[in-house]
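Repro case for the chain-ordering regression, as requested:
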Amino acid sequence: MGHGADHPCPHPVAIPPPKPFFKSLGTSLKETFFPDDPFRQFKNQPPSKRFILGLQYFVPILEWAPTYTFEFFKADVIAGITIASLAVPQGISYANLACLPPIIGLYSSFVPPLIYAMLGSSRDLAVGTVAVASLLIASMLGKEVNPNENPELYLQLALTSTFFAGVFQCALGFLRLGFIVDFLSHATIVGFMGGAATVVCLQQLKGILGLVHFTQGTDLVSVMRSVISQTHQWRWESGVLGCCFLFFLLVTKYFSKRKGAFFWINAMAPLTSVILGSLLVYFTHAEKHGVEVIGHLKEGLNPPSLNDLSFGSTHLMLAIKTGIVTGVIALAEGVAVGRSFAMFKNYHIDGNKEMIAFGMMNIAGSCTSCYLTTGPFSRTAVNFNAGCKTAVSNIVMATAVMITLLFLTPLFHYTPLVVLSSIIIAAMLGLIDYEAAIHLWQVDKFDFVICISSYIGVVFGSVEIGLVTAVTISVLRVLLFVARPRTYVLGNIPNSVAFRSIEQYPVANNIPGVLILRVDAPIYFANANYLRERISRWVDEEEDRIKASGENSLHYVILDMSAVGSIDTSGISMLEEVKKNMDRRGLKLVMANPGSEVMKKLDKSKLIETIGQEWIYLTTGEAVTACNLMLHTCKPNPSGGEYDARDNNV
Amino acid sequence: MGHGADHPCPHPVAIPPPKPFFKSLGTSLKETFFPDDPFRQFKNQPPSKRFILGLQYFVPILEWAPTYTFEFFKADVIAGITIASLAVPQGISYANLACLPPIIGLYSSFVPPLIYAMLGSSRDLAVGTVAVASLLIASMLGKEVNPNENPELYLQLALTSTFFAGVFQCALGFLRLGFIVDFLSHATIVGFMGGAATVVCLQQLKGILGLVHFTQGTDLVSVMRSVISQTHQWRWESGVLGCCFLFFLLVTKYFSKRKGAFFWINAMAPLTSVILGSLLVYFTHAEKHGVEVIGHLKEGLNPPSLNDLSFGSTHLMLAIKTGIVTGVIALAEGVAVGRSFAMFKNYHIDGNKEMIAFGMMNIAGSCTSCYLTTGPFSRTAVNFNAGCKTAVSNIVMATAVMITLLFLTPLFHYTPLVVLSSIIIAAMLGLIDYEAAIHLWQVDKFDFVICISSYIGVVFGSVEIGLVTAVTISVLRVLLFVARPRTYVLGNIPNSVAFRSIEQYPVANNIPGVLILRVDAPIYFANANYLRERISRWVDEEEDRIKASGENSLHYVILDMSAVGSIDTSGISMLEEVKKNMDRRGLKLVMANPGSEVMKKLDKSKLIETIGQEWIYLTTGEAVTACNLMLHTCKPNPSGGEYDARDNNV
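-- result from build under test --
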C-alpha cells in the first residue's frame, strides 16, 4: 500500500486559526450567559443615548409609555376590568389553598401587578397567584408548622419564603442563569401540571363535602383514606351547592371555548358564582346549615409586612427551601406563559429580564403582605382575549382590586367556601392535558415516560417527589444520549456523492474494502469506552460479513466525524487507541470532516500527526475516492465496486 | 415564488421504516446494556456447546486452563514470586494506612487473588489492596468509630463495608451497569489520584516523624497544623531512617525506569527495605529509641470472619455508604488497569465480567478476614514486566503469601513502621501525574479545570468532596454542551459541493439570498429555547449584514440537520415555532439531511407536512441548488452568486 501523500487531496481540512485563551473563554461565556446578545443595541451609541437605553432596558415602561395612545388605554381598561373580575375570586380561592387568610390573596393582586407593569416586558401577562405554587407552599410549610394552630408563624414563613423566592428569581436573572428553567422540559411540565391539578382537585373534596378534619398529606392515598373514613361527616347541602356551581362553571367554560368572542362569559363566571353563592347564603342563612363562609375580611389596603419577614427564625432553612422550589415553579410557568403569548403577537421577551421583574415583584410583595405571584396561564389568556395592548391592563386590575379592598370587602362575608372550591376545580380541570400526554406517547415514548413519572410522582408521592423524579429522568436521558451515542455504517446513495446510513437508506451501497462509520454525538469521557468497543465490534461484524460473502478483504475504516461536535481528552485517548487497534489489524484509519473543535484538539494533542494529515479528508466522498484510488493502484485486479472513484472527481 | 414541488428533487430523504415499539425498545436496551454483544458466540451452537460456553463465560479459567503450557507456568512462577515480594510489604503498609491490623493486609493478598484467578478475564492483573481505597476506608469509617479506641468494631465495619463493596460491584456487573464507572473521566481520575496520593503522603508524616498523636482529618490544613504544633515531639531517629529508605526506594525506582530490564530492582526494593530495616532495628534495638515496630503478627492462615459481618449494627448505613464509595473507586482503578494492559497485549476485557470477578473476590474476602482488594496499577505493572502469561501468577503470589503467613510472620516483628511509610510515599509519588495535568491544560482547558478541582477538593476538603466535585463538573460539562450547542453559518467550499462552517474555513463562500445554519447537537428540552433564540439572532444578523452591504435580500434559511442525532418533543415544538417565525418574516425554511431519528419524529408529529416534504433535502448542496433555481426562475435579474447551481448537478 502506497503512502497517503501520493494521492491528490484537493480540499484540505482546516485547523481553525488559534484563538488566545481569554478570547475564546470570553466567547464561550458570552454564548452561555448572553445568548440573546442584549448589548447589541448599545453598540455605536453616544454615552447619553446608552444611559437612556440602559434605563429602558431595566425599566421597560420607559420604553413604551411615551408612545402610549388613548386607543391602547381603552383596550387596556376593558381587559383590566375583565381580569379583575377573575382576580378577586381566584385570589381568595388560592389563598385558601395555601392555608393563608383570604385577604392575603386580594393583597397579592394589588402590589405585584403594579411592579410588573413597570419592569415586565410582556404586554399580555396578567399577574396573580397560582394554584400549584399555593399548594406547594401549603404542603412544604405545613410539614413543620400547622397553619391552624399557629397561623401567625405560618403567615410569616409564607411571606419570608416569598421574599426568598423573589431574591432567587432576581439572582437567576442577574446571573443570566435563566436557562436552568429550561431543564423543566415540556413533558415534565405537562405531567407535573396534570398531577398538581389532580392533587388540587382532591384537596377541594374537603370544601365540597364540607369536612372539618382533613389530612395534611397531598397524595391520593391519604386524601382518599381521609374522605372515605368520614362518610358520616359529609354535608349534603355543601355537596349539592358545590356540584351546581361546578356545573355552571364548566358549562360557561365549554361555551366560551366553542366561540372565542364569548371569552367574557368564562371570565365573568367565577365572579358571578361568588355573587350568586353569597346571595344564596345571605337569604337562606345556609351558613347555619353546614355551609362554611369566608367571614369577616379586613377593609383597607395592604399593610406593610417588612417586620413579618423572620430571618432569625428556626424555620429559616424551610423558608429558603420553599422559596427556591416555589420560585422556580412560578418562574417556569410565568416565563413560559409570557413567551407563548409573545410568540402570538410576534414580539420578543428576554427571559432573564422577566425573571428580574418577577423577582422584584415578589420581593416588593413580601414587604406588603402579598404571597408568591407569577403570570398564571388562565388569567393571561383572558387578558389576551379581552384585547389588552400593554401592561397597563395590570394597573387597571390593581386599581379595581384596590377599590375592592377599600370598599367592597364586606360583600364577601357570606361567600361560601364551597363556591371557591368549585372555582378551583373548574380552573384545574383545564390543566390536566391528557391530549398532550397522548401526543407525547405518539411522538416520543421517552418523553411520555418522563411525563407519566412526573404525574405519578406528584399524585402518589408529593409535588417535590414528582418534580425531582421528572427532572432526574430528563437529565438521565441527556446523559444516556451522550453515554450511548448512535453509530452508523454509511453507504453511497446511488447517483450522488452523498454517504448516508444504510439503515435509514436501504438503497445505499457498500464500498468494497472500505467500512464507513459515523458517530452521532460528541465524544466524551462518558462514551469513549463504549465507542471504542462499538467501533471494534463494527469492524468485527464487517469482517465476518466479508468472510461469509467472499468479498475483497477490508482495508480502510473511514470515521465520519461530521456529527462529532466536541471531544475531550478521554475522547482523544480513545481515538489514539482506535488508531493503534486498526494498525494492529492491518487496517488504515481515515477521518472525514472533523469539525473545528475536533481539529483543534487533534492538533494540540499531536494525534493529527499519528493519523497523518493526509488521511484526513474534507468529505466522506473524497476519503472514499482516495481509498479506492489506493486500492486500484496497489492491487492489479480489484473487484469492480459499484461506486466508481472517478465519479467523485469534482 | 413557485411551489417547491415544481423543481427536481433527485434524492428524497427517507423516513426510516417503522419498527414495532417493543422491537425498537429491545434494540435500544441491548445497545445500552449489552453494547459488547456477549451472546454473539452463542449463536448457532448446539445446547451442549452453549452450556460449556456459558460456563466458560462466567468462569474464564475453564477457557484458558486446558491450553495452559509448561512454558507459561515457568513465566508465571517468576512473575508470581516477584509480585509476592511486593505484596507482603505493601499489604502491611496499606493495612496500616486503613488503620487495620497489619496481618489483615497479608490475609488480603491470599484469598482474593485465588478467586480472581478463577473468575477474572485479565491475564496481567495482580490482585491486592490499594492505598487510595485504604485511606478512604480509614477516613470514612474513622468519622464514626475510632480505630484506636474500638478496634474490634472498626474491623467489623471494615469487613462489612468490604462485603457491601463486593455486592455492589457484582450488582453493577450483573445489571450491566458498568458504564457508571465511565463517568469517572480520565481528567477526574488524574486529579483524584494525585490528590489522594498527596493526602496519603501527608499521612505518612506521622510515621516518618515518629508522632504519637495525629489528626483524624485528611486535609492539608489539619495535617500541617497537627505536624507543626508538635515540633517538640519529632523523633530524629525515625526521620533519618525514613529519609534514607525513601532515598533508596526512589533511586531504585529511577534506575528501573531508565532500563526496563531492571524492573526487578524496583520490585524487590520494598522487600529489601523491610529486611534491611528489620535487621537494623534488631541489632541496634532502635525500637527502644523512638522507632516504632510492627510487633507481634499472628501466625496462620486467614481465620473465617463471617460472624464479624455486622448487619444489625447501628453503623450499618455507614458501612453500606463506605462500601459503595470504595467499591466504585476500586472498580474504576481495577477495570482501567485491566483494560490498559489488555490493550498492550491486544486481547479483550469485558468490563461487566471483570466487575463480577472483583465483586466475588471481595465478598469471599470479607468472609475470610480480608479487606477491599482490586487490581493496583503498580503491582500489575510489575507483574506485566516480569513476563506473566496468565492469572496463574496470582495463584503463585497467593501461595507465597500463604507460606509467609504460615511460617514467616515472626520475621516481621522488628520491621520499623517508618520503612512502611517510606514504601507508601515512594509508591504514591508516582501517582502524582503532573505531566498528565499539563497535557490536559494544553489540550482541553475544561478537562484541566475538572482535574484541578478534583485535586483541590481531595487535598483541602476530603476524598469524597473531591470526587463529588469532579463528577459534578464533568456531568455539568456534558449538560452544558447540550444546553448551549454550537450553531454555525455554512458556506460553500470553492470547487466542491461541500458546505462547511465559514468560521473553520474562511475560504467558504456565502450563497446570496440563502442562509445556511448548522446545529451541532441533539435538540432537546435543555437547548430548545436557546436554539430558537439563536436561530432568530443568526437571521437578524444576516439581514443586518445584507442591509449594510446592499446585497440581494434573504429568501431561504436552510437548517443543516446532519449533526442533530436526536430530538424530543420540546425540540419538535421549537422547530414548529421556528417555522412560524420564518413564515412571518417571509422566509422559507428548508431542511437538509435530517437523520433517521429526526425524520421519524418529524413524521410522527406531522411537522413534515407543515414544512413540506419537498423542502427537505438529502444534502445541503441539493437544498442550495433548489433554492438557487427558485431564485433564478422567479427573479428576472438575479445577482450572480459565486456558487453556480449547475455545478451541483451530479
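Ordering looks correct now. Chain A has two domains: 69-186+234-423, 484-648.
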